[in-house]
């Protein structure tokens, strides 16, 4: 009977230290790249610690107790400019033409503009379907430590 308990502990430990995580896509925020219900394989962030995050990389993170699948849009130190216009949000990183867009938005009169720098160890995340995505435009940059897995 002791061997059965030991085998159970070993199986649980093996599942816990496995570097891969099976991820089911929920919702349409990553369309058209990933569909609702699609299964993905992610590498647990623990196994990739020390490897720098890349702009464009897709990650699973924990935000407010929920797991979200999003794309990294901006990295620590990047300047992000978010314009809220009638046709939706426009997000720019390291915006060289910031002044031109600012003048355009200012001329519209009802545009809202937010401008900030992504903090050290923070990531600015967006869904691929911005009209239905809850992302960093809503909750701000996500700490790198809140990344659970990286999609490979």
TrEMBL record:
Keyword Hydrolase tagged: yes
EC number: 3.4.21.89
Catalytic activity from the UniProt record: Cleavage of hydrophobic, N-terminal signal or leader sequences from secreted and periplasmic proteins
Domain of life: Bacteria
GO biological process: signal peptide processing
Domain Peptidase S26: 6-151
Active site, renumbered: 29, 70
Protein's UniProt keywords contain Protease: yes
Family membership noted in the UniProt record: Belongs to the peptidase S26 family.
Protein name, as recorded: Signal peptidase I
Protein species of origin: Victivallis vadensis
